[in-house]
Design a protein that fits this description.
The protein is of the alpha+beta class. It has helices at about 5-15, 70-80, 115-120, 125-145, 200, 210-225, 235-245, 250-255, 260-270, 280, 285-290, 300-305, 310-330, and strands at about 30-40, 40-50, 55-60, 90-95, 100-105, 110, 145-150, 155-160, 170, 175-180.
Length: about 350
């Protein structure tokens, strides 16, 4: 267990005399409340740590959903325990019972990134810059310690509280991995439709650059309210657009956006992971320094294009398309048989099942 993780656990338990209770005894120290998220892994409940009245979010994972591969949960714990960054959600505790795992996280009460933006009275490209700088900075930190997130999307950026200056934090490390070397290749088909890098979908092997691709799609979306590849109805069409960097900046929604923003997005959406800008390099791009951003109000466009219900329906439809197309489109790129899939173990705040099926190996 890392020193930062031990500090987090110590802080949670410091007002209780004696040693921290054993894993199976700790559940009684928490009062469980309403469900605030759910997915194929189980559910997330609001809870209170009774000794200090601290609000927490507890991710409850049914062991029966893990297909006898409890290593999935262990990997998530291993990843989050190793992290110590102000813009990454903290794991405060974890324990297990006979049939469930319980992962105790900071309770983020400020809402999701897009929801919070849509509540504003004004939102400009200049307002987007500090948010995306935090996003790229948090991912640069992850990469510096060997972690690949692999499920970067707007829903996984949460505000810690409801204050105007609330920190923005990155959550959901259910399919993240710790890499041992800089050139380690991961092979899992994973992520969320519309935000997943092409090298994952094509099973070419992947690493840290996939997170930058996902950040590029988030940057695009935050400036106009829709995904850069939203209009493609089939997997072959979408993959062709990704591989050829066909990214359209529709004048109806992009006329007030700087050329530097577009250049920044295209560098993040470079189809070649070897030449794609890194998260740390991105922090020095002129757009993320803030000098080139426009103050033009883009909130009406973002609100018009961002419709959670429509996005949910489209996600479900397209995930079904992914499942239908996977064998005919993606498997042609493989010379070996795909290992059996296991349910994704992610989503502190997921409200749908748009995450692609994941393997348990890498």
């Amino acid at each position: 267990m890392s020193s930062s993780s031990r500090f987090g656990f110590k802080r949670l338990w410091e007002k209780i005399a004696g040693e921290r209770p054993t894993s199976r005894d700790r559940k009684r120290y928490y009062k469980f409340g309403k469900v605030i998220g759910s997915g194929s892994f189980g559910e997330v409940k609001q809870a209170v740590f009774l000794p200090t009245d601290q609000e927490v979010a507890i991710k409850i994972i049914k062991k029966s959903n893990l297909n006898d591969d409890e290593n999935l949960v262990r990997k998530e714990i291993e990843v989050v325990e190793s992290l110590d960054h102000p813009n990454i959600v903290k794991l405060l505790d974890w324990f297990q019972t006979k049939d469930k795992y319980y992962l105790v996280f900071q309770f983020c009460t400020g809402g999701e990134l897009f929801d919070k933006i849509c509540e504003r009275g004004h939102f400009s490209e200049r307002d987007a810059v500090p948010l995306m700088r935090i996003a790229y900075s948090s991912v640069a930190y992850l990469h510096s310690v060997g972690v690949v997130h692999r499920d970067i999307k707007p829903e996984n950026f949460l505000f810690l509280n409801q204050e105007p200056d609330s920190p923005l934090v990155l959550a959901d490390f259910g399919i993240s991995r710790i890499t041992e070397t800089e050139d380690e290749i991961l092979t899992t088909v994973c992520g969320s439709y519309g935000y997943t890098a092409p090298e994952i979908l094509l099973r070419q092997g992947h690493g840290k650059p996939v997170d930058v691709w996902s950040l590029g799609t988030v940057t695009f979306s935050i400036l106009c309210g829709y995904s850069p590849f939203w209009k493609f109805e089939s997997m072959p069409e979408m993959l062709f657009a990704m591989q050829n960097r066909i990214v359209e900046f529709d004048d109806r929604y992009w006329w007030g956006i700087s050329e530097e923003a577009k250049d920044f997005i295209l560098k993040s959406l470079d189809p070649n992971p070897a030449t794609r800008i890194t998260a740390s390099q991105a922090l020095n791009h002129p757009w993320l320094t803030g000098v080139a951003a426009s103050s033009h109000d883009i909130l009406p466009n973002v609100r018009e294009n961002f419709n959670p219900r429509k996005a949910f329906i489209q996600a479900i439809t397209k995930v079904r398309a992914v499942n239908r197309m996977r064998q005919s489109i993606v498997s042609d790129k493989l010379s070996t048989k795909e290992p059996s899939s296991t349910p994704p173990v992610n989503g502190e705040n997921n409200h749908n099942d748009e995450t692609l099926k994941t393997e348990s190996t890498s």
